[in-house]
Amino acid sequence: MAQPAQASHAHRSYDAPVQSGSAGDALSVVGGSRLAGEVRVTGAKNSVLKLMAAALLAEGASTITEVPDILDVAIMCELLRRLGCEVVHAGGQVVIDVPAALEHRADYDLVRRMRASICVLGPLLARCGAVDVALPGGDNIGSRGLDMHVDGLRRLGATVVSEHGYLMASSRDRLRGASIWLDFPSVGATETILMSAVTAEGATVIDNVAREPEIVDICRMLQQMGAQIDGIGTSTLTIEGVDALHPVAHAAVSDRIVAGTWAVAAAMTCGDITIRNADPAHLQIALDKLATSGADVEAVPQGIRVRMGRRPRAVDVVTLPYPGFPTDLQPQFIALNAIADGAALVTENLFEARFRFVQELARLGADVRTDGHHALVRGRNGLSGAPVEATDIRAGAGLVLAGLVADGTTVVYGMSHIDRGYAGFVPALQGLGADVTRI
Ligand code: EPU
Description:
The structure is a single chain. The protein is 29% helix and 25% strand. It is of the alpha/beta class and 439 residues long.
């Protein structure tokens, strides 16, 4: 059996993101290996970062476990330190000791390295009555507005302005509960409003909220901290504001996107991968698509086993907010369809620029035509290895998967993107039998 996916990167310094072209930032992938064995998935990046922000809501030491050793977590640690917290990140956990008085500014140098830094907006406003957060850059996957965050905070009584590249929110008095409808079930806006409302005066009802497992996870941690939240996992959250929250220990929900990536890897390489610490209930549509493509998908104790004995059949995909098909698995499924039997239509409804990576996939010989938010993928019998560049985390994962089945060597540049989301990716691939080397 292969080594668990976690456990690598332990000694790597994450002080600064690796720039494209620097040492270790490319991966050489020799295609043709069948991936088989076992991997273990840790907590979800997109939950852990928000759980770390939620810790700001209570004075004292909170502990988060199942934390992946990835660059984004290191950036979040740095941000929390600058806000005045003592943060220790080691051995898969983060301990955050939050002082009584916090700084309330998230600077551009951190926010531009990680868009998720804006998740401190709600907690800092709730704790300090004021917050300045640099407007984010982040992933190269579309415009990614903040209008719903801003509208929600205004409804809770905050004044919000945008000046000199910063979003500044303040409130002279305690925030006041309100009724809020989101135009779209935005993950980020749901989190910002939720984390602002838990200590507001009175009740807040947020309609059309995101229902991702990561949102449920944050609600559970806030509940443990003393927040009163009803409707968790539904489209309507009702929050009764409390005076103060207390620190807790919380284990992050497992990363369904990392698990899904391994599942696609098994299907594409005619492999057999058992993914531990993964919840099939969080991946229902994606796993169903893999079954339709011909894979044998099975729930096993604390995990999922995916086996494939044939060339995948093409499968159509439409990305939607949870429980719809996740946009964060869309590039991986385009990679699968690129070598599948037949043609598939992939529709991207969340991030307009997420098809940019198909130009890179085309360098491997993939036949993908895009028109607006649709991509028509005609499966080829094989791909041919070539140098390609990852433009974001999931595009990078999709390109590595394509390299695994391409003829000859594929060099994926921009591994720093993949390192932001996949802990110990390269050793885990090697453990499963892939012929991959950082160069
Ligand atoms: N949007 C607005 N206005 C807003 C908020 C969102 O127009 O006020 C739009 C965005 O522009 C985007 C869409 O709504 O087109 C979805 O945005 P959402 O707020 O739901 O996403 P997010 O919070 O920015 C998180 C994840 C993404 C994941 C999406 C969708 C984190 C740090 N990021 O982004 O993860 O794709 O939800 O599930 O949690 C990744 O991990 O690779 C990644 C990009």
